[in-house]
Amino acid sequence: MSESVRAGRPFHVRAWPVAIGVLRFAGVVITTFLGLLAVTFFIGRVIPVDPVLAVLGDRAPASAIERTREAMGLNLPIYQQFFIYVRQALAGDFGTSVLTTHPVMSDIARVFPATIELATLGTLIGTSLGIPLGVLAAVKRGTLLDQLVRIIGLIGYSVPIFWLGLLALLVFYAKLGWVAYPGRIGIAFEYSFTPITGLYLIDALWQGEWEVAVDVFRHIILPAALLGYFSMAYISRMTRSFMLNELGQEYIVAARAKGLSEARIIWFHALRNAAVPLVTVIALSYATLLEGSVLTETVFSWPGLGLYITNSLQNADMNAVLGGTIIIGSTFIGINLLSDLLYRTLDPRTRA
């Protein structure tokens, strides 16, 4: 339909498809989030851990156990418990952590910035290495360079992350001394440094604390490089696939017939078109690092959300476990939807 005909239609007729799209998008978000809440709720009910005994202990009198069960609403029918659970979750109330005795939401607000900082730096490393390697592998398809990039990616998918983390600590910390010991900040700065946003590296640079920034960097670089390696393995493989598809298109043949340089064809034309689906790949890689850094945080004693959930699970602190799971799931949903919106914005062909 031409622009003149479309512009001549009444406003309510032109606005109707937009409204349908917005309602459909909102329906997807609400349904997905309710599904996440339903899964976490029923997991909390089927796990053989009594939340009342986790709070009071095994030797609590029966009267105290009954009063606490009523106060927590565990004596109500299951559908009423789920309604209360959804209402509290929407209000950001995930209960109190048995391990820390603090509200779970305040604990998550304290530890989640560490995970964001680690995953962000890992994604930056993986993207800055994965895209060029994927492009070169596609351009040099079938050569030794292509095989080498694919082998590096295969190792990234195959080697257990905890084993590679322990090996990296043995080599770069214990043997070479290039990085700092596990943790997020040195003992010398732990109590003297006051973070603002919870992102230590950015806060140290913003406040001009150069010694603190160097110390934080020496702590974060090894776990971030490890996550970046796994992110790079995924991004390079997808970049290679997208570039192979673009290099076989007719516009590439036409560009070569016009006499354009090979570098301009590859890095300006082909990569620009391949960058549209790469946005989704990078976003999903980032979300995966946010939710999948549990083992990395455990190996490197990184005080993030993954380590918080692990310690809570070991101590049967189900409020903290389920609260952290909801936050991670919500973050994954949000990033996934954002990447979908970016994809539709960058590629006009998907807007129909």
UniProtKB/TrEMBL annotation:
It is found in: Cell membrane. InterPro entries: BPD_transp_1_N, MetI-like, MetI-like_sf. It is a multi-pass membrane protein. Belongs to the binding-protein-dependent transport system permease family. Its main location: membrane. This is Peptide/nickel transport system permease protein. The chain crosses the membrane at residues 21-43, 118-139, 151-174, 216-235, 266-287, 320-343. The keyword Cell membrane applies. The keyword Lipid metabolism does not apply. Residues 112-339 form the ABC transmembrane type-1 domain. Keywords: Cell membrane, Membrane, Transmembrane, Transmembrane helix, Transport.
